[in-house]
Design brief:
2 domains, RNA_helicase_DEAD_Q_motif, Rossmann fold, ATP binding, about 450 residues, 7-stranded parallel beta sheet, nucleic acid binding, disordered C terminus, 17 helices, hydrolase, single chain
Length: about 450
């Protein structure tokens, strides 16, 4: 199918042609006609499948029709709510690209920067507002934003909203929306809590699901490295000796942990920057720009900051620490293997994280291959005994829970989050690794 077959208006088709787009992706092909018909939509597709265009294109077309009520020409008619600054910026850029030939005004607002430029733009009039929950509620409370004329509401990355603790903010926003509206609900995964939320705000929605809820892209080569916690630093340095890894996105569980990884990489001459919630918006954008331009080889990110990172031809994602929420693993590795390209996801797993790995494999329905051909390999016996000890310790402290707190929860999180131990990488091979060949020296090997 071609975009011309989706009954799109000429200004949008011309913009798509300028962008070099001729064929819609499956999520776009299935979503656009239903949205143009004014139907609510529940879209489930893994990251990198073109979800943003799936709602941005038909929204622009719907809002291009003249309004009978001329009194609301300055009113906000569409709201896109999204969890992170980076994703908000990316979505607004999509509206700008696809709507370049339409007289539709759009604005992105988020925290971490001064509000004056945002409030000035709101005063001049905005048709489409892209926002993160915190700044939106702040400006609503100050009287700068009214949602009473919203015709289209998009909740994007709903599962991440839940993960990040934004669910109460989302409900506050929804309470201020008109009852009569069109709602588009998008999520990369569909856990039970998200399904319940969708049921409360959607009316007879069309459901679009282009991939299984918990699937990982087929073209992503996934590998697990069993390693002692104290050896993760050495393993990362060792893997990055492979010069074919031009750029890599490394995931840390905490903000402080991400900074420590960057510090250690810079010490050995690897250009690296961190992106997380404690960084200013300018610093985050600069780090992302450098990474996209490949002037920075390694970008170290926490899960919250990484959502919305869309880097063309990113070949490697490295999970320095496994996430304690299995759906997060799907999000992380989805940063690579985008737009039909291949990618590689390497994950470090210590004894305490074996439980997380079990949950991930259960979710995706796949036993991940283990790479033992590296100098820090942890024996299976050590892994299992350590995992059993960690599990017993967590049961002995039921009030703390078996899993660590989720990262980037805000003030005080640095005191409660678990952090990686980056001290003292081994100079000799780990258990059973004395005669093993070094990982990365055999690019043709399936284990390299």
């Amino acid at each position: 199918m071609l975009f011309e077959e989706l009954n799109l208006i000429e200004p949008i088709l011309k913009a798509l042609q300028t962008e070099g787009y001729t064929q819609p992706t499956p999520i776009q092909e299935q979503s656009i006609p239903s949205i143009l018909q004014g139907k609510d939509l529940l879209g489930c597709a893994q990251t990198g499948t073109g979800k943003t265009a799936a709602f941005a294109i038909p929204m622009l077309q719907l809002l291009s029709k003249p309004h009978t009520n001329t009194k609301i020409h300055k009113a906000i008619k569409a709201l896109v709510l999204t969890p992170t600054r980076e994703l908000a910026i990316q979505i607004e850029e999509s509206f700008k690209a696809y709507g370049k030939n339409l007289p539709i005004k759009h604005l992105v607002i988020f925290g971490g920067v001064g509000q004056k430029a945002q409030t000035d733009a709101l005063h001049r009039g905005v048709d489409i507002l892209v926002a993160t929950p915190g700044r939106l509620l702040d400006l609503m409370n100050q009287g700068f934003i009214s949602l009473k004329d919203i015709e289209l509401f998009v909740l994007d990355e709903a599962d991440r909203m839940l993960d990040m603790g934004f669910i109460h903010d989302v409900k506050k926003v929804i309470a201020k929306l008109p009852t009569v509206r069109q709602t588009l609900f998008f999520s990369a995964t569909m856990p039970k809590e998200i399904q319940i939320l969708a049921d409360t705000i959607l009316r007879n929605p069309v459901k679009v699901e282009v991939t299984p809820v918990s699937s990982t892209a087929e073209k992503i080569q996934q590998q697990i490295f069993y390693v002692e916690k104290n050896d993760k630093r050495g393993l990362l340095m060792h893997i990055l000796q492979d010069k074919t890894i031009e750029t890599a996105l490394v995931f840390a569980r905490t903000k402080h942990g991400a900074d420590r990884i960057v510090k250690d990489l810079v010490k050995v001459g690897v250009k690296a920057e961190a992106i997380h919630g404690n960084k200013s918006q300018n610093a985050r954008q600069r780090a992302l720009t450098n990474f996209k331009a490949k002037t920075t080889r390694i970008l170290v990110a926490t899960d919250i900051a990484a959502r919305g990172i869309d880097v063309d031809e990113l070949t490697h994602v490295i999970n320095y620490e496994l996430p304690n929420i299995p759906e997060t693993y799907v999000h992380r590795i989805g940063r690579t293997g985008r737009a039909g390209l291949s990618g590689t996801a390497l994950s470090f797993c210590d004894a305490e994280e074996k439980e997380f790995l079990d949950d991930i494999e259960k979710l995706i329905g796949l036993k991940l291959p283990v790479t033992e051909d590296h100098p820090y390999a942890m024996s299976w016996q050590s892994l299992m005994s350590g995992a059993a000890a960690a599990k017993g310790k967590s049961k002995a402290k039921p009030s703390r829970g078996a899993r660590p707190p989720r990262a980037d929860r805000g003030a005080g999180s640095a005191r409660t989050e678990r952090e990686p131990n980056l001290s003292g990488a081994k100079k000799t091979a780990g258990a059973g690794g004395g005669n093993r060949k070094r990982w990365g020296n055999k690019p043709k090997s399936s284990n390299s």
